[in-house]
Amino acid sequence: MAEPRKATKQTNARRRARERAAQFRELQDTLEQLAVDYFVTVDSVDETNAETEREIAKLRERAEKNTQKARDEAARVIVRMVEAGAKPDEVAERLGVTVREVKKATREATSAAEPEATTLPIEGDERSEEPREQQGEAGSFAA
């Protein structure tokens, strides 16, 4: 009679082992699917970051172009002031920049200009060639 009892115990043990194995497989399947979801999400984050970096690079390039246009225009204004007869130190004082920046702008404009191009006098400009001290108030800039 011991035999049927042992067989019943083994049958019950196998049933429990199968149940546990099924639970374990179910858990493993769930964990595997969650891992897949995780990797898909992380890849999405990486793609989003890469796209954002591309857009930022485009924005920086556009900003640099716009900034360079503005710098070039500012340099042209400085050159026009010097061509109008203002001395570099007067232009620098008036604009709140260094004399070095004024000279750089005029130097770059001269090197960019064609060699045969000459500056024509501005109509109505009657400034004398006298030193600044002799010009009096007309030659100084009041802030």
Element string (H = helix, E = strand): HHHH
Average pLDDT score: 83
The major pleated sheet works out as: none
Count of separate DSSP helical elements: 4
Given the C-alpha coordinates, what overall shape results?
rod-shaped
The termini sit apart by 119 Å
Low-confidence residue ranges: 127-143
Query: Helix- and strand-based class?
Result: mainly alpha
Layout: helices, strands, pairs:
Layout: H1 2-83, H2 88-95, H3 99-112, H4 132-135
Helix pairs in contact: 1-3, 2-3
Structure in words:
The protein is mainly alpha-helical and 143 residues long. The protein contains four helices and no strands. The chain has helices spanning 2-83, 88-95, 99-112, 132-135. Helix 2 packs across helix 3. The longest helix has 82 residues, at 2-83. The chain is rod-shaped, with a radius of gyration of 41 Å. The protein starts with a helix and ends in an 8-residue tail after the last helix. 4% of the residues are buried. The model is unreliable at 127-143 (pLDDT under 50).
How would you briefly describe this protein structure?
With 143 residues, this protein is mainly alpha-helical. 76% of the residues lie in helices and 0% in strands.
